[in-house]
Give the backbone structure.
Amino acid sequence: MRNIKAISRVTIILASIIVIVIAGIIYYLTLPSPSPSPRLKTLVVAYAGDIHTLDPLMAVDTDSDEVIANVYDQLVDYEITITPDGKKISNTGKFVPSLATSWEISPDGLEYVFHLRQGVKFHNGDPFNATAVKYTLDRLKKYGWGVLYGTIEKVEVIDQYTVKVTLNREDPLFMHYLWLYSSSILDPIVMEEHGGADPNANTWIASHAIGTGPYKLEEWSPGERIVLTANEDYWRGKPKIDKIIINIITEVSSLEMGLITGSIDGPIESPYHIPFKDVNLLMKTPGIKAENFTSIAEVEYFGLNCKIPPFDNVLVRQAMAWATPIDDIITGAAHGWAVPAKSMLGKGMSGYDPSYWCYSYNLTKAQELLVKAGYPNGFKTEAYIPSGDELSKSMLTIWQAALLKLNIIVDIREVAAPTFWDLLWNGKVPLFAMSWPSFVCDPIYHLKFLCHSSTIGPGGNWAFYNNTKMDELLTEAYFEKNSTKRNQIIGEIQNILANDVPYIPVWHTTYTYFMKQNVTGFVFYIDTLTRYWYLDIQ
């Protein structure tokens, strides 16, 4: 027989343990739930080619420009407005503060005083101040494009957060130039540690970036990917997306498959990264949304080198304009994602007037002009494209077929990109196809690169067009304050271009940005560069 006292003792112990366990469970259940760790948002996008430099002064390709625009800030920004159909776009007619909180411009337009945002730091912790602004503008004055920054006379530090810029001549577009990505404010301490302001001496800045922008450069593995991480101390507020991964995917079909399968979030832009021919297919793909914008400051065109026979003959150039089947080119090359161009100006620019461009597809008129020019039996010539430029190849191939009807035989030569640009800049390309998107929505800014004799060669005048009257009109219109008179001059410029035909305007591009349905906040800027700070993932 068991000991009753022992059994009772065991029972009491077990009961006590049960009571303690139950009490512990009740206590645990009444504790407040721990806050879940916030989910990091990562946006995966892709470029069809790698960036070339991170130096704001030296970048000329849109992918390099886009990374720079997200890592750096400028003194001013454009206001964001909403279109009647609900799209967000930059308003190039109104400036808003960025690193400068306010500014005053003297009545004569020669002095600009900028009051700077306080408490802003570069990504490495160095302070942003007037010294940084002076250093950046002095660098632009000395090493930048003279057509943009040549009017800067001197830059003075008034105090830690005030800068005075004096121009040697009034420049009506100076504020617009300060908005450009090339005017990104640099950290002078870092710059001096790595060779100084000279872009030839400081090669570090070409592959590194220390800005004040919404994202920090975490990684650039050439040919593979670029990684940006959110600047948690950004003065406008921490970006909604924590990390941007930009994969370099040179095979277009792989890039598009990434969008279709969802491994890429977007935005991915057409036509730079996605060809026109695939736009309709992607627009019908479930889970993908598309936002379309026709740029107000861009033109796709054919260039004719005015120094290379037979294009040194204006009658031949006019004949080429009559022999250009614009509608066929838009249908075949742009697949309808463009609108016909009737001027070398962007369609939304002041003074745009399609009435001066008299040409349409008419081989009879083209033949008559060829006879007058001394080429009744046609001629042979060459067109060049950089390797892999399928859009230019498609455009020129359609034009080639039309010109063959006049016995104009065009040999389309595809060469490596560096070779193409070397030939183009040195005036050795008779015919070429090109897009000219102006980052400043001003007709004279736009045409100055294309038509002024000072920009012949690398500056943008790849038609080697030299007309003294054109130079005079461009200069006069640039500084003309009266809008009515300015538009009259712009009309005269368009009339001269229609007669001289150094260029044949083809279309104005409709840009399409593809992204997942849950990517929101997209804003279209005139420079076509995506600003990731506005984006969110729902």
